[in-house]
Amino acid sequence: MKFPARNATGYADRRHAGRVLAERMGGLTLVDPVVFGLARGGVPVAAEVARALSAPLRVCVARKIGAPTQPELAVGAVTAHGPPSYDEQLVRSFHLDEATLAAACERERAEARRREQVFQLCEPLELADRDVVLVDDGLATGATARAAVRMLRAAGPRRVVLAAPVGAPEAVAALRKQADAVVCVLQPVGFAAVGQWYRDFAATTDEEILRILREYGQTRSPRRSRPAEDR
User: What is the pTM of this model?
Assistant: First the structure.
């Protein structure tokens, strides 16, 4: 099935979004890049980006910490390693603090560790002096992306580039302060949810991620630079 490169209503599915995103990233200067898909939904998108860049594909796991009364709203996020990342404004608005969120934080950290073990099909890559491209399927609050950027930066890469097919303008603006560069194709005014910009936004399963990783092969690529321009 053939899809248009981009359209006003968004994307057919995550693979289509990944191809469009890869086109947009064609101007970036990337040094020996490694592409990380933010699990779960970011992995199908990341696979297309990694393929276009001839770069290794890995999985990054970050889990949102939901507000007690609105679990779908991320007041923060946590990875398998390192401290949690909180949206201080949201935490204050819900009259929360780190102590009241501690149980949720540990529960989500345990799940992040479990998934990290499931998706680790080969040895970790050395990231020093390399560019890391972190890909998600969309940026709503940016909470999980923020936590993932922090974790990846701790590994000492040359720089961290965050990329997504669609995002809330305010989340993209905030994340520009966290990542060295942010590439976001669609930043619609009145953004409500990531899923509204996909015709097929079915949940990505662990099994699908493992299939993608096996298909891709997680092969290494030679050290090199690619010409491009940050957008």
Answer: 0.84
